TrEMBL record:
Pfam families: Sacchrp_dh_C, Sacchrp_dh_NADP. PANTHER family: ALPHA-AMINOADIPIC SEMIALDEHYDE SYNTHASE, MITOCHONDRIAL, SACCHAROPINE DEHYDROGENASE. Keywords: Oxidoreductase. Coiled coil: none annotated. One of its GO terms (biological process) is lysine biosynthetic process via aminoadipic acid. This is Saccharopine dehydrogenase (NADP+, L-glutamate forming). Residues 4-120 form the Saccharopine dehydrogenase NADP binding domain. One of its GO terms (cellular component) is cytoplasm. InterPro entries: AASS, NAD(P)-bd_dom_sf, Sacchrp_dh-like_C, Sacchrp_dh_NADP-bd. One of its GO terms (molecular function) is saccharopine dehydrogenase activity. Residues 126-435 form the Saccharopine dehydrogenase-like C-terminal domain. Transmembrane segments: none annotated.
Length: 444
């Protein structure tokens, strides 16, 4: 009997585990779900006879080795910094590993050893990174096969909230995935190439230098650059391309308001603040601005950032409760941890909320003596707070890849990402049957 061990029973795991349990039922497989909380793992397994919940602590070596030894394939939805540790266990035990996270240097260093042992360590097989790679490569390969030469590729993806969800929310945003990752996003220099020139955006400028994006049928959005778009020039085999930009999508107005947190220093995670146990939302923000007691916090922000008192940035801060005298509710924390905790009070998905994934690609290419343009977009909508669009688009690619691997339909080995046809063709085909589909349009 083939066994898949799925690690992590958190927010993004529900759809993956449901898919795996269905495949296990059809194929005679077994699914182990491991988490620090056995109760959380049991909740994901439910009453399925094909599943079993186990306790898994990645920092407990003996326990980890014992659990991983039971599996043929391991899927890790643990925080990304644990993946290299899991990978080393998998390497020692001869087990395949799949993750949705970016390939780290530590992970990449295992490539030759994994390949020598005939193991697949597949990474970046979620939404972004994941579906973005696969959907892009499908179009890129098609353009090349048709004799075209890519001159520009831009790609933006965002996990947002559905238009009908929380209509009074001026951010048009809630935490649909790991809230800490949202607060910490982009805290290094973004690198890309634009019209043949290399561009660099330090974190302090990231939310000021945005790209307007129009998604046909869904309206106007704004995008900010991801950390390193340049490394995907080689990955996508686009040597010589003039523009290469990958980024994150948000609703209009988000970036200008979030930039206030960045400029104040609220996203800093390098030191602990004092007096957190008596800190209020208002005093947290006030600790980052001028200390003149004669001027209100609101006036200080308006003056410092050239805002209007009734403008959209102040509206977003007020709605989020940043000017309230409510206690934060923590005993200690860094600025980033405190900001995350405050925002979670209003930004956590609630019953009745639906999330919303928007992905958009633009390809410019030369063919003959003419320039052509293809735009492609993907929209996914969550069903509820458990079966979210984020859980669907992160989990399903991993589940499908695990199924294909156990069926002997994937031959790649070593540390790889799904930019080859043996991954993207079957995974995108099955995603389409599950309601996740990229729509392409040839532009005039």
């Amino acid at each position: 009997m083939k066994t898949i061990l799925s690690l992590g029973a958190g927010r993004s795991s529900a759809v993956l585990i449901s898919y795996l349990l269905q495949q296990a039922k059809e194929n005679g497989w077994k699914i182990l779900v491991g988490d620090l909380s056995v109760d959380a793992a049991r909740e994901r397994v439910g009453s399925s006879p094909a599943g079993e919940a186990i306790r898994f602590d990645v920092n407990h070596e003996e326990e980890s080795i014992k659990s991983i030894a039971l599996a043929d394939v391991v899927i890790s939805l643990l925080p990304a910094h644990f993946h290299p540790m899991v990978a080393k266990y998998c390497l020692a035990l001869g087990k395949h590993l799949l993750t949705a996270s970016y390939v780290s240097e530590e992970m990449n260093a295992l490539h030759e050893d994994a390949r020598a042992k005939g193991l697949l360590f597949l990474n970046e097989c979620g939404l972004d990174p994941g579906i973005d790679h696969m959907s892009a490569m499908q179009v890129i390969d098609k353009i090349k096969q048709d004799g075209g030469k890519l001159t520009s590729f831009e790609s933006f993806t965002g996990g947002l909230i559905a238009p009908e969800t929380d209509p009074g929310n001026p951010w048009r945003y809630k935490f649909t995935w790991n809230s800490r990752n949202v607060v910490m996003a982009g805290q290094s220099t973004a690198k890309y190439i634009q019209e043949g020139e290399y561009k660099y955006i330090p974190y302090q400028q990231l939310f000021k230098r945005i790209t307007p994006v129009n998604v046909p049928g869904y309206g106007e959005y704004e995008g900010y650059a991801n950390r390193d778009s340049l490394k995907y020039i080689d990955t996508y085999k686009l040597t010589g391309i003039k523009t290469m930009l990958r980024g994150t999508l948000r609703n209009k107005g988000f970036c200008a308001a979030w930039d206030i947190f960045v400029q104040l220093g609220c996203c800093d995670d390098t030191y602990l603040m004092e007096g957190v146990n008596t800190m209020t939302h208002r005093s947290f923000i006030n600790s980052f601005v001028d200390g003149d007691r004669r001027i209100s916090l609101e006036e200080k922000l308006i003056k410092s950032f050239s805002l209007k008192s009734d403008g959209p940035e102040m509206e977003r801060l007020r709605w989020s409760g940043l000017f309230d005298d409510e206690l934060v509710g923590l005993n200690s924390g860094t600025p980033a941890q405190i900001l995350e905790y405050i925002l979670n009070k209003k930004w956590k998905l609630k019953a009745g909320d639906n999330d919303f994934i928007v992905m958009w690609h633009r390809f410019l290419y030369d063919k003959g003596n003419h320039q052509h343009e293809i735009q492609a977009s993907l929209i996914a909508r969550g069903e509820d707070v458990i079966n979210t669009a984020m859980a669907k688009t992160v989990g399903l690619p991993l589940g499908i890849a695990a199924k294909l691997l156990l069926q002997g339909k994937i031959q790649s080995r070593g540390v790889v990402i799904p930019v080859f046809s043996e991954f993207y063709t079957p995974i995108l085909q099955e995603l389409k049957t599950l309601g996740v589909e990229l729509t392409e349009s040839e532009m005039n």
